[in-house]
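Record 1 of the preview.
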Amino acid sequence: MMRGGSCVRVSHHGTIKIGDISSHSIELGRQAKKLGGSYDGWEAPIIKKND
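->
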């Protein structure tokens, strides 16, 4: 983050389907650019199902 800048963190529960991820990422990038910022990607925890 740049000095004097701001950071916004968004939380979302969803699938790991590439189409779902892409649509959210594209929209977040568009909104960030519209507001003079940038989008740096996403993070996702790995949750294993207990058998």
